[in-house]
Structures
1.
Amino acid sequence: MRLKYFAWVRERVGKTDEEIVVPDHVGTVGELMDWLAGQGEEYAHAFENRKVIRAAIDHVHVKPEAAIADAREIAFFPPMTGG
Amino acid sequence: MTPTIRLQSEDFDAAIEAAKLTRGRTDIGAVVTFTGICRDHEAGHGVSAMTLEHYPGMAEAEIARHVDEARRRWPLLGVTVIHRFGRMQPGDNIVLVVTAAAHRHAAFESAEFLMDYLKTRAPFWKHEERPGGMGWVEAKDADDAAAGRWQRPRKDAAE
C-alpha cells in the first residue's frame, strides 16, 4: 500500500510518500503507526507522539482502530490548520 | 444546484464569485461571503508569510463532504468554496466561502458551519515565516470547539 506524509510528519520522515509491504500482524492504523515507529530513527521521531497524529484511509479521516486490510493509500499528518 | 469547489494557488475575487451565484436568478434572497485573509501576527509573534500545504485529492473530497452536509442541513440555493495553497503574504486571500439561500439564516449559518469544518477537518497545514525562523501553526482548541458545536442536533441548537 501507499503511505503519504504531510506537514511535520513529512519533514520528520524525510519523504512525501512511499510504497510499503505491511507484515500480517499489523491490522489497524494504530498498529501501523507502532510498526512504522520501529523502522528507523526518522520514523521513531515522526511517530513519537502518536496521539496527536491523524490518519486518513483513501481520502477519508479514520481513527487508530480502523482496519487497514483494504486500504490503497494511508496518510499521516498533524491536526489540520487550514481555513 | 451544483456547488463550486476549487483548490488553487492563484488569488480569487469574492465579489465575482458571489455574483456568479446570483446571476440570472430571482429566488435567492440572501448571499453570505466569508473571506479568510493572511494576518501579519499570530499568537503574539509576527508573521511575514505563510505556506499552505494540502493533501491533493483528499482536500477536495473532504470539502465536498462538508458541502453535502451543509446542503442536508440548510435549504441552500448556491455554494462556492475556494481554498488557496502555496505561499501567501499578510493581506492575501486564503479561503472563500459563499452561500446563497432564500433567507439569511440559512446563508449565515451554513457559511459559518463550512468555515468551522474547513479549519478542523480539511487537510491543510500552515507553515509560518516568523522573525525568529519558520514553524508549523498549531491547531487551536478553540477551532475544535467551534466545529464541535455543530455536532449537536439542529433542533437543540435552535432552541
Note: The CA atoms of residues 55 and 76 of chain A lie 5 Å apart.
2.
Amino acid sequence: MAIDLTITAPDVTTAAVAGRAARHRFVFLRNGKAITGVAILGFFAIIAIIGQFIAPYDPDTLGPDIMQPPSAAHWLGTTNLGQDILSQLLIGTRGVMIVGFAAGIIATILAIIIGVSAGYAGGVVDEVLSAVSNIFLVIPALPLIIIITGQLPGGGEVVISLVIAVTGWAWGSRILRAQTLSLRKRDFVEASRANGESIFRIIGFEILPNLTAIIVSSFIGTVTFAILSQITLAFIGVTSISEWNWGTILFWAQSNQALARGAWWWFVPAGLCIALLGMSLALINFGIDEFINPRLRSTGQNAKAMRRRGIVARIGFTPVVRKR
Amino acid sequence: MRFLARRFIFYVITAWAAITINFFIPRAMEGNPVDALLARYQGQVSPDAIRALTVLFGLDKNQSLWDQYVQYWQLLFSGNLGLSFTFFPTPVATVVQQSLPWTLGLVGLSTVISFFVGTLIGTAIGWKRGTWADGLLPVATFFSAVPYFWLGLLAIMLFSLTLKLLPAAQGYDPGLIPNLDFIFIGSVIQHGILPALTIVLSSIAGWMLGMRNMMVTVTSEDYVSVAQAKGLSERRIMFGYAARNAILPQISGFALSLGFIVSGTLVMEMVFSYPGIGFVLYQAVSAKDYPLMQGVFLVITLSVLVANIIADLVYTLLDPRTRQEG
C-alpha cells in the first residue's frame, strides 16, 4: 500500500477527503490496527465454528495421562483428570463467542433505542432516559450480574447473554445520545423535518446512517465487556461449570490448585486467548476511533516517516494520512 | 452549585434504584432459595432473624408488595441486612463491616495510584506523540484487554511460587492477631503489595490510553498554539495548558468507569483470598448464601456512589465552569 504522509492544516484535508469520499468508504480497513484486529477476531470466529471438529479429544473424557505438561500427544498438556486442555480451549471458543456477540447485539439494540430516543426527543424524555442509563452505568455491573444469575435456576448461555445485555447497554446509550443530540440540530435533519418526513424516516434514514461508526464502536465495546463478564462469571463458578468456555477451564484450574502444582499450561493458554481476543476488539475500536477522529491518526509507522521529513508531530497540526 | 445539587439528586435516585433492584430480584425469581436455607438451619435461627429474612426475601406471600417494600426500608434503616449462612450465625452487616476496610484500603489505594500514574504517563506519551513513546500503546492495549484475575494468577505464580518473594494469599500472616503494632502492619503491607501491584498493572492502561487520546486532541487547540507562540516553557504548556484541560473528561470518566474497575478488583480479591468484600462475595456465591450476596451488592453499590460524589467534588474544584452558574 502506497500510503504517503502529508501534513496539512485540517480544513484543507477535510475538503480533500470529502472529494474522494466514495473511494474512502472502507478507509477504516486500510488502518493497520483495524486489520490486525479483524484478522485475530476472524481467527477466533473460525475456531468457534470448526473447533468442535478439529479438537483432538473429547474435552470431558478422562485420560490416563494426568497433569502432563505440553507434549506431542497433548499440545497444551492435560488436567488432573487427564482431560486434553487444547480440546477444551477449542470447544470453549464457541461459548465465548456466542455469549459475547449475542449479549453485544441485544445490548446495542437497547442502547440504540434508548440513546437515540433520548437524544432525539429531548426534554423530559431525555432527562428520564439519561438518568436511567447513568444509573446503570454507576451501579457496578459484575455484582449485579452475580446476584441475578446466582438466583436464577439453570443459567445457560441464553440467560447469561440476556443478563449481561441488560446490565451492559448503558455506556453505548450514553455515547449515542450525545451524538444524536448534536446531529438533531444539523441542517439536513432540520430540512427533512421541514419536508414533513415521518419521525421514523428521519431517525432511520437521516440519523442512524450517521451514527454507524459509533454504533459499531459501542457494539465492539459491549462485546468486550460481555466476554470478560462471562469469563469472570464462569471463573468464580456462578454459571454452569459443565458448559465449556475459557472461564470454565480457569475455574477447574483454580479449584484444582493448578497454581500450587505449577501447572502453568492449565491456565496460561486460556488467559492468553482472552487477552488476544480482547486486544483484537480493542484494536478494531482504535481503528474506528482514528477513522472518526483524524487527530488520533498517525501513530506507529507514521512517526518514523514524519521524523524522516524532519517534522515534529506536536502542536497545532493535525497530521492526516493521505493516499496519492 | 447547581451542578453539585443536580449530581446529588442523581445519586439519591441511583441509591434508591439500587435498593429497589435489590428488593425485586429475589421476588422475581421462581421458588425461593432462602426457604431451603431456613429449612436446613431449622431451630438454629432466632425468630428475629427469620423475620428479617422474611422481609428481605419476600418469603411471606400473603403480604402486599407495598407492605413488603415499606418493611424492607425500615429494616435497611435499622442496619439489618439479615443473617449470613456462610458465617453462621453472624449477621450480614457484621461480615460486611469487617471486610469493607480491607477493600477500601486495597482497591481504593491502588485505584487512586493507578489513576494518577496512568494519567501522568498518558500526559507524557500524548505530548511526545509520534516518537518512541507511541510504542507503549500496543503494550497498554494488551494489558487493558487482559482480565484482572488472570494477571493475578500469573503474578502469584511468578512472585510467590517461583521467586518466593511475596505471600500469595490472605491479608496478613494467619499466625498474627490483628492489632496496631509494627509486625502486624508490616505483614499487612507485605500481603498487600502483590494484589495492589496487579490491580495497578491491569487498570493503568485504560487511564493511559484515555489521557493520551485527550492530550492529542487538546494539543491541537488554539490556546495551546498561543501558549507556544508566547514562548512559555514546554513544561508549563504541557501541564498548565494541555493536561489541565485534558484531565477533565478523565475525571468524569473515573466516576463512570468506577463500577467496571470495582467489578474487576472484586475478582482480584477472590484470586488472592484477600479478606475484603470481593472475597466475601465469592464465598457467598460458592455457598449460595443469598442474604450475604444481596448485602454485599448493596454495600458495594453505595460505596461506589460515595466515590462518585468525591470525584464530582474534585471535578468542581478543577473546572471553574461548573461553579459559575447559579
Note: Chain A has twelve helices and two strands.
